[in-house]
Every structure is written in structure tokens, then in C-alpha cells.
Amino acid sequence: MNRSAGILLSVTSLPSRYGIGCLDSVAFRFVDCLAEAGQTYWQILPLGPTGFGESGDSPYQSFSAFAGNPYLISLEKLVEEGVLTCEECDAAGFGPDGENVNYETLNNNRLALLHLAYERSNISENPHYRQFLAENHWWLTDYALFMALRGFFQKPWTQWPEDIRKRWDYSLDYYHRTMYYDVEFQKFLQFKFFEHWWALKNYAASRNIQIIGDMPIYVAMNSADVWAHPELFQLNEDGSPSAVSGCPPDAFSATGQIWGNPLYRWDYHRSTGFDWWCSRLWHSFHLYDVVRIDHFRGFDQYYSIPSHSSSAQEGHWEPGPGIDLFRTMEWRMGWRPVIAEDLGLMTDTVRQLVRESGFPNMKVLQFGFDLKDTGAANDYLPHNYGTNCVVYTGTHDNETIAGWFLDGSEELKRLVRDYLGDVCTPDDQMYLPLVAMAMRSRGDICIIPLQDYLGLDNSARMNRPSFAQGNWAWRLTEKDLSSSLFRRILRLTQITARFNWANAHLV
What residues are annotated to the active site? Predict the structure, then answer.
């Protein structure tokens, strides 16, 4: 990969109208801002559907590994199509523009608007819709029925009646007939999501901006994937998980974390030639230019926690598929650009897997200043970076760089200043030299969260691991997307030799 730069920003964080950032004109304008600032990448968070009250609205706990989030459908475009009116959208009461996402309001009001659009759409006459159904039936049929059943039963699928929980043929036929319009509504939502996504994705390509997508390693227990393909997962006879995902104590939690996702039956996946995984990877590479695979170390060893456990500390490590999965992927699809999220507990075998894969791994600047590991050998200190890596000031799971420094101990602040050789910059401006240090590093790619360019404190943090509620809600305001901000980003990108020369004519 060439020396380049990008910005990390969830689509949901855009200052769109109607309560949440989405695939509307604001997203197109943000692409323009990236191009004019000499950037190469827009890194986003997972795009899968989430539900209010389930797993804290986390995009890493989606109802499907393949579907898109209906919240991201542009109401603005539906108004342009004539299936909604501005008055109807305004009356839905999403709160003042620019405020944090209110997922309860979205769940109650936005889906009702989308259903109204569906009723007015005459979608069955659209040849593009029929083509979409034909090309995506391999995942869409199960997903649409799952979501319709979820709405009908109002319970996780493990609590549904046995006939449909176990997908007996007559039961599938019965519910497809009796819930026909609910199933068709779910298909309509997916058609509109992908129609709007591809418009944005193609526009980004026209401006020489590549999208880095994010693929969670696990899927949610209450998902179409687990319901439709229980043989892929470590489940009991009743469909409940026999063990769940998580991690031992680490930098994010002193007692570890229980994520609750079902674990894969890697022996079964291997016996199929990793068919499901290759389908999932192909789908991700179809959607994005580059795929960041979350929790990459889980392919070397994964942390298995007995499902009855109350503490992550009761878990243990099990072997994952290792390099075989990625050799199979390359054999089937050829070389594909991947970023390995190898954060967490690092071992020699994890490092070996990253080396064998050839994928660039991640270097998070904040981790370089761990007060328990201040030695020169710390992998996250910039002087130890190689070129085949992606450098971040922080990720969606970290504090903002400004909040991290301002809320840090005096010992941490002294260590950072000594490393930078900076004794003059005021504390509330220290995010500037920290961002610049990441951009100056040797790593081929540097991705900076937009909150860090803005110097925002931890009120702008996206996620606090181990806290189930209050995450994923932060949004920009219109004034944040200022021309002065992107001129400053452009200048830093130029002087650190990360400028995207494909857009030189814009400067």
C-alpha cells in the first residue's frame, strides 16, 4: 500500500436530518471534504442492522452478517422519489438536528415512515428490485423471514415455537404465506439500503476515495445467521449457545468482557472448505474497497467462556482456524486488501499469523504510552512501527486523543511530553502534536478519527467497552464540517507525504 491517510467516522455520526447520519446528501458532501483534504480513505463502522434495546444498539451485534441497516436509508431520497413528504418526516419527531442518536425514537418512528414509503412504492414493478432479489436470495430470503418473525413473536428466536425455531419445512412455508407482506417489507428495506449505499460508494470512487469497511468476527446470537445455520455454531440441542465469546482482562477491562456471541464450530467450517466464511468475505469485498477484520487474533486462538459463566475470567483459549482460512480465501478470490485488527493480548502465535497473512496490522498511538510498559520495545511507540501497518491515534473503542490526554495522570502527561519533546503546548491543545506524530510515523496508512482532528473530549467517544448502554450515539454538528478544518487536515496530509495525488486538481 502507498503512503496515505484517511478519516474514521461512522456513517451514523454524520449531521444528517431526521435523527441519525445516513446515506444522504451530507454523506456525499463528506466525501467531497475528504477528497479536497487529500485523503485516500473513509473508514466506517459496520453497516449491519441493529435493534433498540438489544445489545446496546451495537453495530458489532447485528441481526445479519449480510444485511444493511434500515436506519441508514435516506429519508431525503425517499422524499425526492415522492413516497414520503418533508412534512411527514419532520412530524416524526427525531429531535433537534445534530443531537446524539436516540435509538428508541428511531425504533418507534423511523420504521413507521419506511413502512409508509413501502406501501406507496409499487416496488414489485421495479426491474432493479427483481434483479436485486435474484442476486441476493441466498441470504435475503432467510433474513427477511427472520426479521418478520422477530417482529411477530417479539422474542429471541430461541424462544419461538419449536416448529419454526427448528425450521421445519411446513412451518417455513406457513409463515412465508401468512407473513407475506411483512417479509416483502424487509426485502424492500434491503433494496433501498443497498440502492443508497451503492450510490454513495460509486460517488466516493469517482472522487478517488476508498471505503474501509469493518467486518466483525462474530455474529449476534439473535441473528438470521444463527437461526438459519445452527450447524455453524457451538449450540446446544435447544439452540442456546454452549459457549460464548469474550476476552480476558485487558486494557479495556480489568475483569475481562463477556460479549455473548456464539462461537464457531471451526472443525465444521474447515470440512466445508470455509464456504460460509468465503461467502461472507466475498460479500464484504463486494461492498468495500478494503476490509478491516475485527478481532483478528481470534483466528489464531479464540476465548471461550462457558455460557453459564458470570465472569469472563472463567474462560479459556481454544485454537482457531489459523492461516488456513486466509489461504482458502486467497485461493478462491485472489488477493484482497485486508486490515488485521490484532489488538488485545498479543502472543508469538498471533504475531506469526499476522506475518503469514501479509495483512497490515494496527498500531494505536495511545497504547504506546502504557505506564506498565514504557520500555523502548513497546510495539505501539512510533519509533517501532514498520511500514506494513495502519496507524491510529485511537479507535471507536478508545477515548478521544484529547480526552485521553486531558483525563490522564500527571505521570502519563509527563511521559507523552518527554517523548514528543514538547513542554510548551497547553494541555487542551496537545491533541495537535499527537495527531501530527501519528501522521509522521512510518506506517503506510494513517487513519485519524474525526473527533481527534476536532480536539473533542470524551463526550464524543463512540464506545466504552464493558458498558452496555449509552454507546454508538455521538454525532457531528454542521459547523464541525468547516472548510478551515479540512484545510488544516490537507496541510498536515501534504507535509507528511500522505497526500492523495489522484485529487491534486482539487487543491
Answer: 294, 341, 397
